[in-house]
Amino acid sequence: MTTDTRFALAPTSRRATSVSTFTRSSTSFRESKPDGSETITKTVKVTCTQEWPAYNAAQTHEQERFVRLLRDLCNGIEQPAQTFGRPRLPLADVVFGLTFKTYGMMSGRRFMPDIREAKEKGLVTKSPSFTSSFRYLENPELTPLLKSLIEQSASPLKAVETDFAVDSSGFATTTYARWFDHKYGKMRSEAKWVKAHLMCGVKTHVVTSVEVTPTETADAPQLTPLVNATAQTFQISEVSADKAYSSRRNLQTINAVGAVPFIPFKSYSKGSQGSKPFDGLWNRMWHFYNFNRAAFLERYHKRSNVETAFSMIKGKFGSAVRAKTPIAQVNEVLCKVLCHNICVLIQSIFELGVEPVFGAQTFGTKEAVVPKLAWE
Q1: pTM for this one?
Q2: Residue 244 sits in which domain range?
Q3: What is the pLDDT of residue 160?
């Protein structure tokens, strides 16, 4: 027997004109036992439909909101002091141009009309050429600045997000590693890619912290900096991650910020951890995972939201990077994540009534960020 019941909830947005609609479908199975008793098993699946008026408004006004929010973020970038040499480009304008180019998914040369138009509208004071932008993208000093912008862009949602998920994914590049295979007597090659580790909220999929590393980097050591960076802005209640992050140190890191770790254990893991000193947290979570599996998986299922976040980033801003050098590839991935966060903020403006305000905090580097010259 299948029934279909519809009920309405109050809208979550002040701007939305329609209510959210949920569809509940249930399936019942009746089992008769020899003693005459009956057992009825009911499986209920609840799905949520899209709040289309708010979604349509966010999508149709995204680009105009994007440039304003990005400009507000870049206003907090301090211009490094310069005592000699040719006057450098305003760092805020450079970051604005690089991020806006990533949002449009255009090459540096074809993006030039857009940055000139941005100058006419007063969004930038100077329109850097594509060659200047490329040199700044190759500078390692730009990496911590982009991370700061990503964390700052997520801060307006700190009242919304309390549960978080962690995972990693790769972004393809156009560079290859080549070597000579002496066993088979021929040249071999494989494509290189960069690996992004991020923590995101499970409700809005906003990225709260990110680390971009080379291909061969392990997942587990990256969880500690992600959790600590997120805890500086957000109140963390739960953290979900897959088995790659299963370690005693990671459980202690999550517990130290007042959160509950939902990380499944590997098949060979034991509650006592062998000859290692007794760890009460590891022991409790191991017994919870093995003897209360249904309750554990119900909370662990929130981890799928980080897969959604990666899908949103790659589907909208591409799963590959154009840059050639390793530092530039890392910075380009960070620009993609920053674009994703701003788009999430725009969606939250229309769905949740969030009003992001930037500019109260300045961030940047004390050292001058100098573009790498071609002959260096």
Answers
A1: 0.83
A2: 161-263+293-320
A3: 94
